[in-house]
Amino acid sequence: MKVSPDYYDEIFPFKGEWDMESTCGLKIREVAGKTYVIVTELYQDNPGTSVTYAGRKLADQICAAKNLKLEDIIYLECTPNTNSKLSFYDEEYFQVDFFADMQHKYRQLTKEEVMKILNYNEN
Amino acid sequence: MGESEGRSEQVIQDWKNGCLKKIYNYIGNQPDIASVGPCRRDLYKRDLYNHKGVQMVDLFNASRGCRFSCYPCAVSYLGGRKFRPRPVDKVVEDMAGIDNNRLFIVDNSLAQDKQWEMDLFRAIAPLKKKWISHTIEDDPEVLDLAAKAGAWYVYQAVYDTSDYIKERVKRYHDYGIGVEGTILFGLDNQTEDDIKRLIDFLGEIDLDLAEFTIFAPFPHTKGHDDLLRQGRIFDFDWDHYNAGQVVYQPKHMTPEKLQDLYEYAWKSFYASESQEAKMFRLFCNVALREMEEGTYRPRDRRLANKSFGRDVDRSKRNVNVRTESQKLIVKNAE
Ligand code: SF4
């Protein structure tokens, strides 16, 4: 269940639940004037808390490290494709709204939306 | 929090000095596995772990951690994503000191390091213990060594109706190892028909026991994260996360239907022979092997009317028909 490095530009170490040493993949993209922060779950290569469970705690640590404001970013969680035979490990992207209630906190992105963000070219 | 070897001394010292901290956090910081020593089994009140004079198994750890990361399982998070086998000589020393011939090796999966697994089985064989465990490597040499080392029965996941599962169960039986099937219901790839087919299949594969569970989205599993993001968890009361209650919206059926199928599975598997009778059959198998090896201990007559410290209601006698070998065991036991 190795995650392809195509999913991230850097490995971001963070403190997870109970300060457990954890890591995730991180990509930051500027798309049409908006800052997209994309965190990718690394499964076996993450010794600690998952990106979803860490949630806001991880987002705050990224914002502090990258000098961003949580209100100004669009935060995406990615569960990458790991070429597993099980459909549970297919690729998915979710936009997380930390200010919404539980019912509206996550929204799954369509393939088109994802492509638009990842393939955006400034020029 | 975390594993306590080498750490509890500090906690006790702090308590003695009146400066106990609220949290001692060692999670993710596991001690050297070689430092795991024998437990203080002399502290057990053994009479309370006894059913009608028969001593219950002692729990034993030969390794910790798990290098796999199965979808519904939090073990690799809690115990670390690295398999940490104890040195074999330490295991033997620890096991030899247990005043009980029947153990449950509670390691998450022994099938993680074949060489260590084989070394372990060779080393513990002379102790003549009989033991239960989770999965053993599916390899004739390993199964043979496990049987010689006293494998009594194993827990084996039955996740589909394939020939592979059927043959896997048969291979254990070929080596004289019993099988308790563990069957998980409610994953997203299961429809109502799949679950019914799986229940029917259990009748074809000659399991010795079966244990059914409903998928519980425990924190720190991918299952939990997926359902959380999809807004499908409707019950966050941890008391209900007992793997027998539905706490989320299944993909292909209502929560009520899944609950019904779970209840039906228990009833149907044990319809022709009760769980107690099937367990008794397994007990007879192990007792016969012990008699052959001269390690059998008759039950403690002092506790014949006690079960886990409570009085036994003798008015509810088990009237199952017993085979000749079972009668022999009962006779020897009494
Ligand atoms: S189910 Fe067993 S093998 Fe899988 S992660 Fe959990 S302990 Fe490891």
Could you write a compact summary of the structure shown?
By secondary structure, chain A is an alpha+beta fold. Chain A has helices at residues 51-54, 56-66, 111-118; strands spanning 10-15, 21-31, 34-40, 73-79, 92-96, 106-108.
Care to describe what's here?
- The complex is a heterodimer of chains A (123) and B (334).
- Chain A has 123 residues and is α+β, with helices and mostly antiparallel strands.
- Chain A has one domain (5-93).
- Chain A is 19% helix and 32% strand.
- Chain A has a 6-stranded mixed beta sheet with strand order 1-2-3-4-5-6.
- Chain A is globular and about 35 Å long.
- The model of chain A has no long low-confidence stretch (mean pLDDT 92).
- By secondary structure, chain B is of the alpha/beta class.
- Chain B folds into 2 domains: 1-31, no CATH class; 39-333, Transcription Regulator spoIIAA (2-Layer Sandwich).
- In chain B, helix 7 packs parallel to helix 9 (255-269).
- The radius of gyration of chain B is 22 Å and the shape is globular.
- Iron/sulfur cluster is lined by residues 66, 68-70, 73, 75-76, 108-109 of chain B.
SS-based class of chain A: alpha+beta
Provide the spatial order of strands within the biggest beta sheet of chain A: 1-2-3-4-5-6
Low-confidence segments of chain A: none
Helix count from the secondary structure assignment of chain A: 3
Radius of gyration of chain A: 14 Å
